[in-house]
Amino acid sequence: QDTHAWSGRFSEPVSELVKKYTASVGFDYRLAPFDIDGSLAHAAMLHRAGVLSDDDLSAIRRGMAEILDDIRAGRFEWRLDLEDVHMNIERRLTDKIGDAGKRLHTGRSRNDQVATDIRLWLRDQIDLIGGLVGELQTALLDLAEQHAETAMPGFTHLQVAQPVTFGHHLLAYVEMLARDAERLADCRKRVNRLPLGAAALAGTTYPIDRHYTAELLGFDDVCQNSLDAVSDRDFAIEFCAAASLVMTHLSRLSEELVLWMSPSVGFIDIADRFCTGSSIMPQKKNPDVPELVRGKSGRVSGHLVGLLMLMKSQPLAYNKDNQEDKEPLFDTADTLVDTLRIYADMMRGITVKPAAMRRAVLQGFATATDLADYLVKKGLPFRDSHEVVARAVRHAEQRGVDLADLPLADLQSFSPLVAEDIYAVLTPEGSLAQRDHVGGTAPNQVRAQIARWRSR
Ligand code: ARG
């Protein structure tokens, strides 16, 4: 019994091994609802163009509704010998409604069909992910709001640099995520164009109305070149690039969470429900979730590179290589969705330890730059001031105290410009309060940024 749509051309059936090797239904079955939407729009367009009769269209609608019900209820039996989601659904439709089912594929190819399905699916995922990015931003803003004044050391080279507020530090990630959301929204514009009508590669001889199909499916426009329409996967690559950046940002934050939770740093604690213990060391509480996010970021970037490699040598137009686009794309979206969900939850389960942050900011001479700026404001050129402060730091280091703990006479021995008001500048709070301009770490500015984000 011939099961394939093209078997008249062949003298022997494909081998079992080849069947398994070429089938995609094991993963592309998840495109089913989008495949059905695409088919219904295509059928409605063919009907309007006079290619399908009233009876054919209503039979197709009825059959597809039943098929969708069966799929949702888990009753649909996916057949490997029917290769992919498209032919499984089409065969079932024909079993149900007869010739009308066989007419559905008029003026269409699986090449433009699959390209349409992926775009519909990805558009949906982008909208979901956009919302999740927003939720994570909100969780970060909530935490930042509680810590608009909490001083911690800011680092460069992982060495103590200058005091920053913890709120300011968190807001840096809100910025990154905002760019991520912009990138996803931009990518969506190019996802949201209709390939249907390109057919196999050259277009079709039927009087089709692609703009009508596009309108029915909510596409902004149609792909303007049939060869490009069936072979373009730029949109998938762009999505994976945007996803890789989201994951890269979360990987950086994860690295910080792991560091901050290490007992020798002790800036934060992560709620138990995001951590695991050790099977041998009874004292352990490991930050597994941030570690896994860091690990999974590599996997998503790997998918980006995988898709670039998939596309780089393909001649026009459609090649079977393209079937390999789905697993990396699906896994990218799934990983991103799960990661964003868990992350927003985890940020709400973080306990901040301001006392430990304050202890750390008082070590490492975080306010040395403030002393230098103070002297500059009293007339000393910055390079000279830098040298004066370097000597004062060495002196304090030898005595094992912070700059703010040096007696006035000691500080004055390095520069006669130092007066009693220096101590207001040398505390973490003094240092923070002075950085009071757009983008600065002063508590005022942190609160203003939070208000700006909230109003968006
Ligand atoms: N399963 C195929 C894919 O994912 C559908 C398109 C097949 N087209 C073809 N000419 N073999 O790309």
UniProtKB/TrEMBL annotation:
Pathway: Amino-acid biosynthesis; L-arginine biosynthesis; L-arginine from L-ornithine and carbamoyl phosphate: step 3/3. It comes from the Bacteria. Belongs to the lyase 1 family. Argininosuccinate lyase subfamily. Keywords: Amino-acid biosynthesis, Arginine biosynthesis, Cytoplasm, Lyase. This is Argininosuccinate lyase. The keyword Repeat does not apply. One of its GO terms (molecular function) is argininosuccinate lyase activity. PANTHER family: ARGININOSUCCINATE LYASE (PTHR43814:SF1). It is found in: Cytoplasm. InterPro entries: Arg_succ_lyase_C, Argininosuccinate_lyase, Fumarase/histidase_N, Fumarate_lyase_CS, Fumarate_lyase_fam, Fumarate_lyase_N, L-Aspartase-like. It holds the Pfam family ASL_C2. GO terms for biological process: L-arginine biosynthetic process via ornithine. It comes from Paludibacterium purpuratum. It catalyses: 2-(N(omega)-L-arginino)succinate = fumarate + L-arginine. Gene3D superfamilies: Fumarase/aspartase (C-terminal domain), Fumarase/aspartase (Central domain), Fumarase/aspartase (N-terminal domain). GO terms for cellular component: cytosol. The keyword Amino-acid biosynthesis applies. Residues 8-302 form the Fumarate lyase N-terminal domain.
